[in-house]
Amino acid sequence: MNIFKNHTFHIPVLGVGYSVDTPVKVAPLGISSVISLVDDTTIEKMREFYSQKFDIPFKKITHDVEDFRAKRITSYLNVVDEIVQRKVAELKNSVSEVGGEFEKYLQLLPDATEIRKKLNLAQKSREAADELRKWVDSKLHVGSIDVNIMTKLDKTNYKDGVELPAEHNDAHAALRGFANSKLNSSLVLSAGMSPRLYSYIENFKDFFPDVNGLIQKKIILKVSDFRSAFVQGKIFAGKGLWVSEYRIESGVNCGGHAFPTNGILFGPILEEFKKNRDQLYETCIGLYKAALQKKEMPQPAEAPEMKVTAQGGVGTAEEHEFLIENYGMDRVGWATPFMLVPEVISIDNETLNLLADAKEDDLYYSGLSPLGVPFNSVRGTSMNKQRFELAQNGHAGTVCTKGFLKYNTEFTEKPICTSSRQYQTLKLEELAAMNLPEAEHKKAYEKIIERECLCNGLSTSALLSKDIPVKPIEKVTICPGPNLAWFSKVSTLKEMADHIYGRLNLLDNRHRPHMFLKELSMYLDIFKERMENFMQNQQDSKELKQLQAFQQNLFDGISYYQSLFEEKKKEVVEELDQLLAKYPALNYAFK
Questions:
Q1: Where does 215-339 show beta strands of DSSP type E?
Q2: ∠ at Cα 274 (271, 277), nearest 5°?
């Protein structure tokens, strides 16, 4: 008997702290989600909180403990795993309870109505009911407790002024923390390729098939195009490591750091994956088996699974189903809408209300990240207000207490963070000495002080939601994608699941552009801005070539959308034409 259809959505990583405990809430209900492993300080505080709540022995892991970062992460993940197992056991015991956790589990599923009908029939037969209990006990799907590592956040660490070996770098230690945990789940690698980190994975047996050919810890790659997936997939396969999922993210992004392409649109990217998926699999499986044989390791028990999923900007049941049916996606990631589901994420009430009230103009593509990468944000956060006040009072920047984003060596031998007071003081002194015209000075000044402390900002809300004390300087930054503009209601998990599966509509009444057109409008804005800058300095031949490629990629994508929607959704084509009319710069004839 198999009456359950697993969920066709997952919850991607949400900032640093917003989804730090999401698996505790949704994994027992069959929903997979992702924990960020950036901030071991917050992770340690959350471990203490949940250890007390569930009566689990707790011993603090201080900075004095050798390899404390990895050990904190391992310990927290083991606590999360234990709590999820307890909740799953309770859920199984509630099979016959009206209104119990098992009933809640059923109500969330895609085919909830059909399942309830079958269960009603099962209740009329003791034999069928007993069969159901046995099935639930052995086959119930539990959501995966996945973790995310941004490969670029691999800061070098020091002890007593001496540089530690590479395995103590931030990303390496986080990887080790996951590898040493009890979890049977996946590692999501994002933010680009890191050959050194990829090689380090080979040190941990759980990423390879065991004697039975089963893989305890799987690898998920977050990618923005097929070429990146193909190159990285082959690299991993050549090491005897299998990529079990390619997670494609649109330029609109799920929130947080955005990594836009050079004008290559989401639809054409998905189409390329659809056409070349078999090629990707066949190329990698040959390299994978050969590498395992060379390492004298067990071959997989059966042909390993390779999922392809998509995320970023999806907001309706129709779009969700379109990605699955038209492009063959195995699942679709929903992130930003869950920022309004406090039952799922950890968020303080003030920030939750800010998001609920936010409209399209409040959500913006910012330069507030110390990494210099575009960052989705919302106006009016407590961190946003604080950095303006500090700058106005002559104390631009914040005191750097965690240091996860120390990468700038412009003024110092050892890297510092561009949101820190140390950096911004030095940068503003440099700016003052340049004696620029007032307009140029103002623009440069605002760019310097725009950088925010993400280390604290993206974790503080989670701590506040648990009444865990924070310092006055620790304010909130949040990173919703632009898709949030059309979600204005604080919702329950059931309501959001019903929205995803078309049983309920949570969108407000304002017009919402198709997810593909929303991404296109973002790229048109980027192209327009780059064109304006280029017109002021046409001697930049490198930028000329990049703009020409950007323009051609946009033309190709627009042509694809016109063909894709011409017959089935003509209203999208009409909206596309209206959008293009607003950007005459797109038709600029380069010489």
A1: 218-223, 243-249, 307-311, 331-333
A2: 135
Q: Nearest to residue 330, comparing CAs of 10, 4, 2, 3?
A: 10
Neighbours of 95 (CB within 10 A): 19
**CA pair distance 277, 445, nearest whole angstrom:** 47
Q: Residue 514: name the closest of 585, 567, 579 by CA.
A: 579
C-beta atoms surrounding 104 within 10 Å: 15
Spell out where 445-497 has E strands.
Answer: none
Task: Report whether 77 contacts 183 (CB < 8 A).
Answer: yes
Using CB atoms within 10 Å of the CB of residue 225, give its burial: 0 to 12 exposed, 13 to 18 middle, 19+ buried.
middle
> For residues 7 and 333, what is the distance between their CA atoms, to the nearest angstrom?
11
Least reliable range by pLDDT among 59-63, 136-140, 382-386, 553-557: 136-140
Cα separation, 271 vs 328, in Å, equals: 10
Interatomic CA distance for residues 3 and 438, integer angstroms: 69
Give the tens place of pLDDT for each residue, 334-363.
999 999 999 999 999 999 999 999 999 999
Which residue from 342, 369, 380 is spatially nearest to 454, judged by alpha carbons?
Answer: 369
pLDDT band at 3 (very low <50, low <70, confident <90, very high): low
- Contact between 292 and 208 under an 8 Å Cβ cutoff? The reply is yes
What does the angle CA 331 – CA 201 – CA 188 come to, to the nearest 5 degrees? 25
Distance CA 100, CA 90 (A): 9
Question: Count of alpha carbons within 13 Å of 230, Cβ hemisphere only?
Answer: 13
Phi first, then psi: what are they for 491, rounded to 5°?
A: -125, 165
Number of Cβ atoms within 10 Å of the Cβ of 115? 17
| Whether residue 1 has pLDDT greater than 50 | no
Task: Note whether 228 and 259 are within 8 A (CB).
Answer: no
Among the listed residues 432, 367, 368, the one whose alpha carbon sits nearest the alpha carbon of residue 394: 432
- Look up the pTM and report it: 0.94
User: Token pair for residue 556?
Assistant: 């190709």
**Amino acid occupying residue 21:** D
